[in-house]
Design a protein that fits this description.
The structure is a single chain. About 45% of the residues lie in helices and about 5% in strands. The longest helix is centred in the N-terminal third of the chain and has 23 residues. It is globular, with a radius of gyration of 23 Å.
Length: about 475
Amino acid sequence: MNKLAKYIMTPLMILGVGCSDFGDIDKNPNGAETPLTSALLSNGLAAFGNFAAGGGSFGGGLYAQYFSETQYTDNSIYAPQDLNWAGEMQGRMMDFQNIININSDPATAPTAALQGSNADQIAIARILKAYSFSVLTDRYGDMPYFEALKGNSTPAFDAQEDIYTDIFKELDEAVNQFDDGAPVKGDLLYGGDITAWQKFANSHRLILALRVSKVNPTLGAAQFNDALNSPGGVFTSNADNAVMEYPGPPYNNPWFPIGADQGISATMANFLNANADERRRVFGNNPAAGNGNIVGVPYGLTREQAIAFTAANPTWSLILDEPYRSQTSPQFILTYADVLLARAEAALLGWAGTAADANELMHAGIRASWEQWGVFNQAAYDTYITDTDITFSDADPAAVKAEKIGRQRWITFYPNGAQGWAEWRRTGFPALTPSVNAANNSKQIPTRYPYPSVEYTYNQAGVDAAVARMGGDTDSQRVWWDVD
C-alpha cells in the first residue's frame, strides 16, 4: 500500500465498538480498545495537507485575487458565505487532540508508545493543532480555543490576541518537547524526522510573528528571533520544504477536482507577465510559446461576464500547470522561499538584519521560489532581480522597500489563499481593487469571515461575547492583528 493509504482507516477499524454496559459481551475481540495513534496521525495529515496548503480555502484565494471564478462567481464578488468550522474541528483537529490525549493518559500511553515516542507524538500533534488554529483564527478573529476540542458544546470564544499568545507557546514548547525516542509511525509529511518537524514549527512561527508586527511589534520581534534560535532552526533550503505527496484516488491533490471552475486571476497573471516572472509558466496552464505569458481571468466578473470571457479566450489559464494540478501532484504547505521572504521583511523592520540584508534575502527568496517550482533560469533571474519594479535601492523610501517585499510574499504564497489573504490584509500589498460587482454591504474586499450561522443557534452566548469585543460580525470587521 502507498504511504498515504497505508494508515488511513475508518473509525470502525481503529475504534472498539460498543453501545451499552454489557461487560465483555459488548467488546469487539478484533478491535482496538484505544484508537491507533499512527492511524489518527495519517488520517489527520491527509486532511491537513489540503487545508494547510490553501486547497480548501478558496475564499481566501479569491479575496487575495489569486483566482477568478469562471462560472458561479458569487464568492468572487463577495456574496455572503457561511463557512462552518465544525468539520475541521471534528475531523483532523480532533485527531490531533486525541493523539495528545492518548499519549498523555497513563492508562493508554504505553500502548500508544508502540507507535513511537509518546513525547514526539504529542509534539507533532501540538504543532499541527497550533497551525490549524492559526488559520482558523485568521479567518474569523475571536473564536473557541481554550475550551475547544474538549467535548464542550458551548465553548467560550477567546480573544484572538490570547489565541496567538498560546499558539506561540505551543509551537515553542512542542519544539523543545521532542525526545528523539522511537520513530513516530504514520507520519506522512516528514517520515518521523524530528529535526524536520522542529524546522517546520519554527518556520511557521516566523510567519505568525510577522503577522502581529503592527499590532504588537515587541511580541513579533521576540517571537521571530526566538524561532530563529530555537532547536532545529528554520528552513535552510528547499530540501526542508513541507510538501504533501498524494498517491492518487481517493487521496488526490486538492487542485485536481477544481477543473475549469476557477482560473488564475488576471491580477496575478498580468503582474507575472509584465515582469517576465518565470513562475507564470507553472502558476497557470497554457503558457504561450516563447515568452511563456499566460491569460488570466479578469477578477470579480458576474456569471454572464465570466462565461463570455472564457468563451472568447479559450487559452485562459487554470490554477496551476498540469504537473502541479494532477491527482498525484505534490502540494506545498510551507517553503524555504516563504522563510527567506519573511526574513527579508524582518530585516527591513530591524528585527534581524539591515535593509541591505533585506534586499539580498528577497533576491534569495525569489531564487528559491523559482527553483521550488522548477523554472529557474540564470539569465532570466538576473534580469528579473535588476528590474526596478522588483528590486529596491538604498535610496528607496522604507515604504517602497516594504511594498516590493510584500508583493513578493504575495506571489510566493500562491496558491495558498489562506496565507496570501492574511498577508494582504496585514500589509495592503499589493494594492488590490475590489470587484466593481461587489455584492456585500461594504463593497470592499472582505477582511474576515462572519461567524457560522450554526454558532448563533447552538452557542449564542459565546457569539454575543465575541461580537461585543470585536464590534460586530461582518465581513468588513478586522481581526486583531489587522491594523493600519
